[in-house]
Design a protein that fits this description.
Blueprint lengths: L8 E10 L3 E7 L2 E2 L4 E5 L6 H8 L7 E6 L2 E2 L4 H7 E4 L11 H11 L4 H14 L15 H11 L7 E5 L7 H18 L2 E5 L3 H7 L2 E6 L2 E6 L1 H6 L4 E6 L3 H8 L6 E5 L3 E6 L2 H14 L6 E5 L3 H9 L9 H14 L1
Parallel strand pairs: 4-9, 4-10, 7-8, 8-9
Antiparallel strand pairs: 1-2, 1-3, 1-5, 5-6, 10-11, 12-14, 12-15, 13-14
Helix pairs in contact: 3-4, 5-6
Length: 334
């Protein structure tokens, strides 16, 4: 008989209401499996940061509860803190200390015996290819190296669960893709469960075993990246026209699965297969003496999934405070 596998994190109607009646998280119910990489996607204000703060015991829930690594969120905060690691999006390492000095300082916070701490630090530096840089000052590190050091800072206490909040924020595309490799290596070698928040959809697509989309404090859908894309059941064609009248004519094309007119005379149309349907659409428009200015075809992607379930693209939401912090990190990483 196969043993029942319990989730390493399970929330039960987890809710957070801030002063003024602002409901940041509304009856959240999620289950995260042991040793998986779980992505939490949402716009600023959707509730993902508040969720992470509750799960890491930084703030108390208003109602509901969670079981984290077998411990009760409301009763066992200290025990939970011992089994989790947190890597915030802001840089926390001291640039005036050496890499190993930063790691030793964290080890001292957990009262890890010196010999054990030294071996652990050595192993962690090897995982992220920083063995030759451990005894150099962090101020000498490149941006990518600094982020790698930040990553293993969250692993010094050998956590069962690692929370990564925007782990590649401020990095260029090439360095970001290298960081993905290190995150995968960490999950594979250490068997740690990783909860990842990111506004880079490609990042979550590449890394996460499962993804939940959160909006207005509620989970809208959860699944693997492939299953979420498959849920769209079709390709998306976006066309721009000279007038709203032309857009309305295009929207009436009978072969679409669904179609809607957006602002600026744009039509978003879902079809089963764009390769076979687009020529028919153009023929239909030609008969009505209508010509689109632009045509954009998108196969199912996480961006389209996000748009489908939330009604807006994740890139549309640029929070001034997050942008300020991102630019601050970029300057510090250079």
């Amino acid at each position: 008989m196969e043993a029942i596998r319990l989730p390493i994190i399970k929330t039960e109607n987890l809710t957070k209401i801030y002063p003024g009646g602002i409901k940041a998280v509304d009856g959240l119910n999620i289950e995260i499996e042991e040793a998986e990489i779980y992505g939490l996607l949402g716009k600023n204000g959707a509730g993902k940061t508040t969720t992470i703060k509750m799960l890491t015991t930084a703030i108390d829930p208003t109602s509901g509860n969670a079981i984290i690594g077998g411990y009760d969120l409301r009763k066992d905060k200290e025990k939970i803190r011992r089994i989790i690691g947190v890597v915030p999006q802001d840089l926390t390492t001291d640039a005036d200390l050496k890499g190993v000095e930063n790691l030793r300082m964290i080890a001292s916070f957990y009262n890890i015996p010196k010999q054990e701490a030294e071996q652990r630090i050595k192993d962690l530096l090897e995982i992220v290819d920083l063995s030759d840089w451990g005894n150099k000052y962090v101020s000498q590190y490149s941006g990518g190296m600094r982020k790698r050091l930040e990553l293993i800072c969250g692993l010094v206490n050998s956590p069962k669960i690692l929370f990564l909040d925007e782990p590649t924020l401020g990095l260029d595309v090439n360095t970001r893709s290298k960081m993905w490799k290190y995150i995968r290596d960490i999950q594979k070698e250490l068997g740690v469960t990783i909860i990842l928040t990111s506004h880079y959809l490609e990042e979550v697509d590449q890394l996460a075993d499962r993804i939940s989309i959160i909006d207005h404090g509620k989970i809208l859908i959860t699944g693997t990246p492939d299953s979420l894309k498959a849920s769209l059941k079709g390709d998306v064609i976006t066309m721009e026209f000279n007038s709203m009248e032309d857009a309305e004519l295009a929207r009436s094309y009978p072969g679409s699965l669904e179609a809607s007119v957006m602002g600026d005379a744009k039509v978003r149309m879902k079809v089963e297969n764009s390769d076979t349907e687009l020529p028919k659409i153009l023929e239909y428009l030609l008969e009505k003496n209508v010509s689109p200015i632009t045509i954009n075809v998108k196969k199912p992607s996480l961006d389209e999934v996000f748009l489908e379930y939330t009604g807006s693209s994740i890139e549309e939401d640029i929070d001034p405070e997050q942008f300020r912090r991102m630019m601050q990190n970029v300057r510090r990483l250079r």
